[in-house]
Amino acid sequence: MLDQVIRIYIIIDDILKILDHQGHCRCQMSDSEVITTLLVSTLFFGGNQAKARDYHLSEGPIPHMLSASRFNRRLHRNWDLILALFYLLDDLLKHNNDSSRYLVDSFPVAVCHNIRISRSKILKGKYFRGKCVSKRTYFYGFKVFLITTEAGLPVEVAFVPGSWAEIRGLEALAVDLPPGREL
To answer: 147-161 burial, b for 16+ CB within 10 Å, e for fewer?
Structure first.
């Protein structure tokens, strides 16, 4: 896993150098290291950033790990850069995909349990109340629609309110695949 983390860091750092990204001179942790930690949490720890931070602290691939709150603030500060990297990698994956087939999937992201909907401060209204037919459950939150390669790498994503029907969510996807590809 350490070799994969080092490869991820090198790729992200090289891309940021190509984009001529300049981090703040007094930062203890570079933007490449912050984005690498985010990707490591996604790839190896199911999106749990605390576990990724603990891994970096115990294994030592990133020498100056930030506290949880400071790390979160750096992620928010660099959100535009992270989105730009996602779209750049998205184009690379689409054009370098050997297979001509792409897969579509959707899944719910619940913000709170159904019993706590009335106390939710993050979202308000029936607009976010949805039904997951495959699980035979109701949820309160968002639906995520993905287009992935056959290997499971995401190339398009759309977040929609939970009340949206599947067909309407598919229309929200900006399907921009190379010509001759099968969805």
So the answer is: bbbeeeeebbebebb
CB 60 within 8 Å of CB 86: no
How many whole angstroms from its chain centre is CA 125?
A: 26
The dihedral of CA 112, 118, 123, 124: what is its sign? positive
- Give CA–CA dist 3/19, Å, rounded: 24
| 137-149 vs 154-161, strand pairing mode | antiparallel
- As a residue count, the chain comes to 183
What's 152's DSSP letter?
S
pLDDT digits (tens, 9 = 90+) for 5-53: 888 888 888 888 888 877 776 777 888 888 888 888 888 888 788 888 8
Task: Identify the CA nearest to 164 among candidates 111, 140, 135, 128.
Answer: 128
Q: Show the tokens assigned to 11.
A: 């790729």
